[in-house]
Amino acid sequence: MRIANTIAQMKSARAKSPGSVGFVPTMGYLHEGHLSLVRQARAENSLVVVSIFVNPTQFGPSEDFKAYPRDTERDLAMLKKEKTDIVFMPTAEEMYPLHFNSWVVVEKVTDRLEGSFRPGHFKGVATVVAKLFNIVEPTRAYFGQKDAQQVLVIKKMVADLNMNLEVITAPTVRESDGLAMSSRNIYLNPQERRAATVLYKALTLAQTQRKKGESNAETLRQQVTSIIIGEPLAKIEYVSIADTETLEELTAIDRLALASLAVRIGKTRLIDNILLE
Ligand code: AMP
After folding, report:
1. For the segment 73-112, what is each residue's pLDDT rounded down to a tens digit?
2. Is residue 216 classed as helix, strand or coil in its secondary structure?
3. Most CB atoms closer than 10 Å: which of 44, 46, 48, 190?
């Protein structure tokens, strides 16, 4: 496994690899969710590149950029076990030198949900992912369904800007009690960790109700909301039942829908989603 700290090192390693390249962008502090993406990339490509970069431009001024968990030694050991070929770990100065002035803005789909609660977040995400794609030149890039809106934004950017790669979405990996794995789960104290299971409980209830034939989106929103409200440590940011492509809120569920939510448990902001067929 090779480590590239500079863009020049990464580009030169890429240039020596004629076969397919599978790429998994991450912010590190890896868990089984990340590793599932790495395993799929390993199975489908001749070379596997993983980036570890806590991207400052996707964090708002009052968000957790400084506190975001980091453990490079542990991450590298995990990636080595998964037979990763190259780990790209640039510094912020390498990615955003002085006078950096170009941004990728994906409109419309970024107005809603995460975009409305985290202004500027997707501008930072799209820009760093576009840069990473230009540096790594992957054949396929792997993203988790956990961040459903992020996948939509990346797919839209790739299509609109004619980027030459395939974007692959992998299922959300969960703890045994249903909590979606996230690097941010480390922030939760034991009491909050127990409370955090309410997200998946509420989403699975929506799925069960949908399977039983409920087609009124507002009824489902209210049911999800009341479950979350029943958890005293939880504070809702949004509960959404939306079209899976446009993220427009639905009235009647007459097609595949995305149930998604953002909830604060204490100081920790958690997101999760589930598909309603
Ligand atoms: P992050 O390090 O949080 O930026 O995540 C890097 C990639 O891993 C993104 O594509 C995420 O959607 C994906 N990911 C994070 N958590 C999970 C999970 N629990 N299951 C599947 N993919 C995940």
Report:
1. 999 999 999 999 999 999 999 999 999 999 999 999 999 9
2. strand
3. 48
- Mutating to test ligand 1, I would choose from 31, 147, 181 the residue with most ligand atoms within 8 A of its C-beta, which is 147
pLDDT tens digits, residue range 146-169? Answer: 999 999 999 999 999 999 999 999
Backbone angles phi, psi at 121, to 5 degrees: -55, -50
- pTM reported for the whole predicted model: 0.98
- DSSP class of residue 267? T
- Ligand 1 neighbour 40 (Cβ under 6 A): no
Residue 99 designated active-site: no
The closest residue, in CA terms, to atom 8 on ligand 1 is 34
What's the one-letter identity of residue 56? P
Q: Is 181 in the pocket of ligand 1 (CB under 6 A)?
A: yes
Evaluate whether 274 touches 204 at the Cβ level (below 8 Å): yes
Report the distance separating Cα 113 and Cα 225, nearest Å.
Answer: 15
